[in-house]
Write a structure and sequence with these properties.
about 325 residues; alpha+beta; 11 helices; 11 strands; about 20% strand; BirA Bifunctional Protein, domain 2
Length: about 325
């Protein structure tokens, strides 16, 4: 228990440091609903569903998988730069050393900015956290140099360098799947491109990232844009990045899509995927879609897993040790 308590002290100080960093950089801290009517239709994410009961009426509701939708509505109303630290929830993911269904998330958004500005924020934030913890004698040395410039490597460069897959193959789904079979991956007729992509990413690329310095893996393929803008210079790619330290993914960032028509089309396409997989379609958040028309400036944003930050800065390898009570403490789960 003493070791767990020490980790919880690191957690407390780390969250204090995050708040201090953003407050000192003129961000407003916001609070948005955790219980909502419209969930993210992203096919790779499954929300927890519930019901809001009012007298004899019952309304379908969901626990948020991210505060992103509500934060963008605030941005559309002129909030300026904002951040939030809150709980988020994702269902149907295996409880593991890196995943807990209830987790703490940090999100921030900059106006008149893009994903390159968020890259700079990440570098500055991590250096600030390390210094803050060191002053309080809570810092555990990390096998990664936070002070040097972070590595920046594009998705296409990473697949070429670490998996031997060239850019042409990366953009041809059939060739890509065939190359995966050659490499020994199990690829069935129903296996999607994204599933194969993820297998290669997890097995061959992620372990190579964030070794000597943190790594920023940027410019994902356009079909993986999620809520990111496509690159105007090369629309085969999206202005999205994830960053890694010691092979662990810690954050996912975008130059945010602010085109309401394109966003609606993406939500509809995601619902079609959910339908094809026999999963319920999600009611589209038209309040969000319509709000995008009021965002007349560039916008950069990111989501970072706070529990994984605590793992990193306390030298812990199991996310359960960063939580006062993990899912395995509150549910009788099979190992």
């Amino acid at each position: 228990m003493q070791e767990k308590w020490q980790t919880l002290l690191v957690r407390e100080a780390l969250i204090d440091a995050v708040r201090l960093f953003f407050k000192s950089n003129s961000f407003h801290e916001v609070e948005t609903p955790l219980l909502v009517e419209c969930a993210d239709p992203e096919p790779s994410i499954e929300p927890f569903s519930t019901s809001l009961i009012q007298a004899s009426d019952s309304y379908r509701g969901y626990l948020t998988t991210s505060p992103e939708f509500s934060m963008k509505k605030l941005l559309a109303r002129g909030s300026g730069n904002i951040f939030q630290i809150c709980k988020s929830f994702r269902n149907a993911e295996p409880v593991s050393s890196r995943h807990n269904p209830e987790f703490t998330i940090l999100e921030w958004y900059r106006v008149n900015a893009n994903y390159k500005d968020i890259m700079a924020d990440c570098e500055n934030l991590f250096r600030f956290i390390a210094g803050y913890l060191e002053e309080r004698e809570l810092f555990v040395p990390i096998k990664c140099d936070l002070q040097s410039s972070w590595e920046r490597i594009s998705v296409s460069e990473a697949f070429q360098k670490y998996a031997g897959i060239d850019e042409t193959t990366l953009h041809d789904q059939e060739k890509f799947k065939f190359r995966a079979v050659e490499k020994g991956y199990q690829v069935e007729s129903q296996t999607t491109f994204q599933e194969v992509f993820d297998q290669i990413l997890v097995n061959e690329i992620e372990p190579e990232l964030g070794k000597s310095t943190p790594s920023i893996l940027y410019d994902y393929l356009a079909p993986q844009a999620a809520l990111a803008k496509k690159k105007s210079s090369d629309p085969r790619y999206a202005e999205r990045f994830e960053f890694y330290i010691n092979g662990i993914e810690l954050g996912n960032a975008f130059s945010e899509l602010t085109d309401s028509k394109e966003q609606l089309a993406r939500f509809e396409a995601q619902n079609k995927v959910r339908h094809s997989e026999g999963r319920p379609e999600m009611k589209i958040d038209m309040d969000l879609v319509n709000s995008l028309d009021n965002l007349n400036q560039e916008l950069g944003g990111i989501a970072v897993g706070v529990d994984r930050l605590v793992m990193l800065f306390s030298g812990i390898e199991d996310i359960r040790e960063t939580l006062a009570f993990s899912a395995r403490d509150v549910f009788s789960l099979d190992e």
